Amino acid sequence: MIRWLRSILSVSNRPLHDRLAFLVSAAVAGAVAITGVAAYIITNLAIYDQLDRELIEVAAVTSDSISSDIEGMGGLNQDALQTANVTLLVVRADHRTIRPPGGTNDEAALAVTAKEIAVARTQTGSSARTGVNTAGEPYRIVAVPLADADNKYALVLGRPLGPTNQILRILAFSLLTFGLAAALAAGATGWVIARSGLEPIRRLTVAVTQVTETNVLAPIELGGMDELTDLTRSFNAMMSNLASSRDRQRRLIADAGHELRTPLTSLRTNVELLVADERQGMLPPGARAEILRDIAAQLGEFTTLIGDLVHLSREDLSDPDPEPMDLRDVVSNAVERAQRRGPGLTFDVELDPLYLVGEPESLERAVTNLLDNAVKFSPAGGTIKVRLEGDRLRISDEGPGIDEDDLPHVFDRFYRAPTARTTPGSGLGLSIVAQTIKAHGGWVKAGRTEAGGAEFTIRLPGSSELPSSPADAPTGNLPRVTE
Hints:
Beta-Lactamase, Helix Hairpins, Heat Shock Protein 90, five-stranded mixed sheet, 11 helices, rod-shaped, disordered C terminus
């Protein structure tokens, strides 16, 4: 048992297909061993039972003649019994034995035991055992009662077990030989099947190693329709998501670097002018104050850009924390903030109730971004309309609107239409809106009003009636955002 456990522990460090082949071989060897032992035991019992029945039949045939002349053994002699490969004697209850005349070798006679004496004394039943004769040769010995008016006898018959034991030895050798051959064949077959069956895993291992060494996210070729193929398909999907995520990360870093470079370059130029003026006094009167105001504006733009980038990174990594709310409160707070940024504008606001489960802070920021966009492009004295009807929130302005060519791209990160590149902004506000609304199970789209201004429509899953309990409030899936 200890060696077996050690062998298993040593095999556990081998490759998976070798372990599978070993386990298949062990399982087959165990099954063959159990079957072989069972077959040997059953065959052994069947052969000995057949021997007993044959000896009892011989006793039945000879008992009548022997009982009529016990001393003369009914005329039987040992030479006649040898043709039937049977040794016979009669034993009396007082241990006296009578053997057939002729050819009897007392040194090779059957050895009588208490079992045969018991049959003679009780005159009931029979006995069967495996024993030896006086010469030490194995015999199958059967005793049956023998009726007599004066004494109690038992008729004892024996048949040598040499041929029978030879058959059993051949059977045991055959079972062992074919069992070992079957185990070896099963091991070889298991190794081949394991190797071919684990081919997708090998390809996965090679792919993972290749990704580690080369950083190339290449998919694996599919083959078959089994569970390993499903695993390969899932791995390919993971590789695709990783490649897409890496591309988005690279694009975000490149775009962010480009967007950050402009205000940093401008800040550096202005600071260098101030440093040069400090040394040489080259600036005309009033220019220094103008440069400082320009620096302050650039710092504000830079701060906004950094804040948007931080918000996007937090949205990508943080888990949602939704709560029941009324969207009217969110929109009202966003309108108040927008009014402070556009004091000369008119806000036409009509809000119907919309109850849902979401994150008020992120939704308020999204609505604020849309309102800031409307404030930025509205003319002096213009009107911004805010309508919350059913599950739709519409925000429109009276500005120049969005060109048809720009509509498909307004929600892309860092995208800025040619007409908007001279206006302040980071190019991330509308991307934050789209990401937030999508995370709440809704959608947002951009369009134009009949008068030509920009109009943004948000759809959020909600209910116009107050739910009886927070659990009944409609909500989006609020998935973990990975875009």
